[in-house]
Amino acid sequence: MNDFSERMNQYKSAVEAYLESRFTEELPQRKLFDAMRYSLLAGGKRIRPCLVLEFCRVCGGDWEKAIPFAAALEMIHTYSLIHDDLPCMDNDDYRRGRLTNHKVFGEAMAVLAGDGLLTAAFSTAASADADAKTIVDVVSVLSVCAGETGMVGGQVLDLEGEGKHLGEEQIWTIHALKTGALIRAACCIGVLAGHGTENQLAAAGTYADSLGLAFQIRDDMLDVLGDAEKLGKATHMDEKKSTFVLLYGVGKCAQMIEKETQKAIDALDAFDDRDFLICMANKLAIREY
Amino acid sequence: MNDFSERMNQYKSAVEAYLESRFTEELPQRKLFDAMRYSLLAGGKRIRPCLVLEFCRVCGGDWEKAIPFAAALEMIHTYSLIHDDLPCMDNDDYRRGRLTNHKVFGEAMAVLAGDGLLTAAFSTAASADADAKTIVDVVSVLSVCAGETGMVGGQVLDLEGEGKHLGEEQIWTIHALKTGALIRAACCIGVLAGHGTENQLAAAGTYADSLGLAFQIRDDMLDVLGDAEKLGKATHMDEKKSTFVLLYGVGKCAQMIEKETQKAIDALDAFDDRDFLICMANKLAIREY
């Protein structure tokens, strides 16, 4: 357990140091950089970049070389939060205990900060110290998982579902795309960066799908049961949205988290050194924020 | 001249056929695809994709293989228009003679359609039938030119400059980033796709910079002098913005267009077959919409 925290901190520090070094040039569009950095450096659990680095490592790769890929993923995650919070979307004032991007920098700048981060994810990935084939594979996974058949597609389904009574399958699809796709990207990109086998790539995808689902169910539970202070955002906000808790109730949700967490752990047979990834799954299943 | 129109039409048709084939899957997020296609297939001059294909061809490359790169560029250009037109940005109701994206699909969907197109540009580029090194170089140029030190940076400077009296250097910088960067990307990506020399890459950049500047000055002139019907959007709308016409007057602007067009043409010495690119520069200098 201590090993987990230590490695997690090592990964987080490395990714944050890299992110901290970006968008610092003294250029006329300095305010854009401020807006991008405001959200990018707002803390957060950094789960996705840590998954990139650990999957790279367990495949025998040099995780430090995968830092730009990890950072690219965090840029995409961050841009999606900025755009999600916009008045025309979820209209949230707080995120991670701080004012949302548009509350500080205005709507126009928030749109552009999101656009800037999304675009920078790809220049960052392209700049990695890796062979060209690996970079192309990473760009491909990243853009497909973040795009119209992945995260952005899920965001649309989520918006369209507001105020409607959604069926089980629809809710599963929304979360598989909106949250799941980027977690899948993280795990698979780690394997690509570490030159893992096809078998390991498939296993990482399976782990990611179950981890992502458990993560989302836990998210829904925390939204109902959670402590606003710990979460850093208003709770009970998603009442107009169909959630796993509304669909199944709290008890069944707890069981589902347990089941998906076990499925994630079972998928790790393809890797020799699985302690960190097992611990990650167990920790996320019981997280409080 | 006839050769120019013929080749231009050939390129346009090829790119439009490719774009037409995209985002057609019958998926639950179909409405997102509709919104993306609405703006992507709204006509437009398709200058950027045609520059990609022609620069590829004059470097001895197979321009048909560069179509995904050309389409990626058009996706980025289109997303930038959708986000520019948003109420929190320029708040435009019409574009190319049709209602803007958010007027038809709503603001939230317009933000997401833009995000989807920007992301899809990179999955499209990554899917091209080209060697991995070329794809990485293309992704790199595309993301740097479209990103925080390119187009998005220019958009921020443009917004911040609204209602202010800007100096000559500031206006040049805004346009170099906001319009120029993507035209530069188009020309350079064409050379990369055609495996041109370093010398040709530099020449394409010089051509692009002068062409882009002439293009923007002509744009400013048309905004003042133009015919709203031909332009398909309201004219005189940019009065709150500092433009080349406000700075230099119409007469000086006409001279500058001539000078920059000549500079663009002079840069073409690095290529054997320059007729199309010369004609492109001359046509853009006198365009009416």
Tell me about this structure.
- The structure is a homodimer of 289-residue chains.
- Chain A is mainly α.
- In chain A, 70% of the residues lie in helices and 1% in strands.
- Chain A is built from 14 helices and 2 strands; from the N terminus they run ααααββαααααααααα.
- The first copy, chain A, has a two-stranded antiparallel ribbon with strand order 1-2.
- The longest helix of chain A is centred in the C-terminal third of the chain and has 28 residues, at 198-225.
- The first copy, chain A, is globular, with a radius of gyration of 18 Å.
- Biggest protein-protein contact in the assembly: A-B, 56 and 56 residues
Give the assembly state of these chains.
homodimer
Number of strands of chain A: 2
**Total number of helices of chain A:** 14
Summing up helix and strand content along with how strands pair, one would put the structural category of chain A as mainly alpha
Distance between the termini of chain A: 19 Å
Coarse morphology of chain A: globular
Question: What fraction of the residues of chain A are assigned to beta strands by DSSP?
Answer: under 5%
Major sheet summary line of chain A: 2 strands, antiparallel
Question: What is the ordering of alpha helices and beta strands of chain A?
Answer: HHHHEEHHHHHHHHHH
Order of strands across the main sheet of chain A:
1-2
- Overall pLDDT of chain A, averaged? 93
Helix proportion of chain A: over 70%
**Unreliable runs of chain A:** none
User: What does the radius of gyration of chain A come to?
Assistant: 18 Å
